[in-house]
Please model this.
Amino acid sequence: MYNLLKGKRGIIFGALNADSIAWKVAERAHEEGATFVLTNAPIAMRMGEINKLAEQTGSQVIPADATSMEDITNLVDQSMEILGGKIDFVLHSIGMSANVRRGNHYTKSNYDFTTIGWDVSALSFHKVMNVLYNKEAMSEWGSIIALSYMAAQRVFPDYNDMADNKAYLESIARSFGYFFGRDQNVRVNTISQSPTMTTAGSGVKGFDSFLNYADEMSPLGNASALACADYTISMFSDLTKMVTLQNLFHDGGFSNMGISTEAMKIFVDKK
Model:
C-alpha cells in the first residue's frame, strides 16, 4: 500500500457484492487510508451485501435513490457530517437497463423502460454533481469518477440502450466537469472499463462470448475489476491533479485494436 488516499474522504455509489467494481474500489480506498460513505438504492441494498463491506472497511451506509434530488441532498449532508468535512472523491458506479432485463430488443424498446434506465444510469450523475457543486461540498482538487464502457463510441448490438446511457454519461462528465474545474478546481472523468463479470454486466445477452472475444483482441487481455479499482484509486489521488474532462480507456488496449492475430485464427479456414 502507498497511502495514496491518506486523510481523504469519499462517497462510493454502487457496491452490490464482491464482484462489483465499486466494492473493489472501496476495499482499495480503505487500504490506501481513505474514509468514506457507501451508498446504494434501497432495493439494491436488499439484494446485495453492502453491510458486510461496511463492516470490513469501517464505513457507514446511507441508502439513497440516485435519481432523487432529495435523497442525494440528504446523502451529501450526512456524508460531510459523518466524515467531518468536505468530500475528496466520489465514485458513480451505477447502471441499469430495464429493456435489457426484460429482453426487449433495441429496435423494440419500451420507452418508459428507456427513460427509467437513462435516469438511473446517466442523469443520476448530473444530479449527484448538481448537489455537490451547488453545496460546494467537494474539496479543492477533489476527483469525481463515473464508470463507462466503449459502447458509448462503438456499436455493440446486445448492449442495447445502455450504450446510449453511457454516451450521455460521458457528455455529462465533460460538460459539468468544465464548470467544476473552472469554479472549484475539481476533476471529473469517466473510466471506460473492459467487459467485467459483474452482476450488471452478466445480464447482457451473449456476455460470456464477448468477454472471451475482448480478451483475445486486447494485447494485455481484459482488465480485471481489481485492476480497475487500482486505476480509480490513482485518479482519486493527488498524482492526477491535472486530469479532467477525459474518458479514460482501461481495457488492455482493446479500444485501439482493429484485429488481433488470435482473433484472426477464427477466420483462417473460412472461405
Observations:
- The mean pLDDT is 94.
